[in-house]
Amino acid sequence: MTLLTEAAEGRRRLNDNANGDKLNVVIAYELGYAWGLIHEHVSPVYWPKSYYGSSEWNSFAFSSRNFKCDQIPGYNAVIATARTLIATKTEFSKFVPEDVCKNWALAIAAKFGASDFLPGRKAIWSDRLDKDEAGKDDVDWDSIMMYSTNYLGPGVLYDTDLGIILERTKPSQRDIAGLRALYEAGYKREYAALHNEQTSPQLEEFRKLTCG
User: Fold this and answer.
1) Alpha carbon 185 to chain centroid, angstroms
2) Under DSSP, is residue 11 helix (H, G, I), strand (E, B) or coil?
3) Mind giving me the DSSP string for 141-168?
4) pLDDT by residue (tens digit) across 190-201?
5) N or C: which end of the chain has fewer CB within 10 A?
């Protein structure tokens, strides 16, 4: 990570930019994925139970009020696709076409971008899963993995109070706490240090090759 964050190495710093530095945002997301983070908004603990098909959680931090699914490009066309899936696939027979904005599996089958926002993953870890009704204050709005308001289209996702969600390009404090929980508790790597790590004997040679 050193070569991405240290200006002295000839690389740009990751920084918050309200105007949307797309390159930094993409790098930030990819780093988050590599570290093992998932998008904050896909956790079922934040959604009404009708979105996840479970009575375990019933929150309204995200709902149709602040998730404007019909603003995602291709919405009108995908309604026809969803109608066909409902008519031909028994696993979707209980749905209506508009459920492509509520059901993750239907959105996936229809190849619709709503699947990037909806809860549906089976293995989710969160420090807020013990709450029956997690509220807006439980959401990490500053997370590096939180989609911005204009991701995929203008005005798709807002915070609970309909405020703009900015693009983030550095981990939040909660992101850092989660990463520490993942990697500090008994974690032991069984392979050699990467060339860009301070402990690598090849670090100086690596810097020469990559930084000129």
Assistant:
1) 24
2) coil
3) TT-TTPPPTTSSSTT-B--TTSPPPPP-
4) 556 777 777 778
5) C
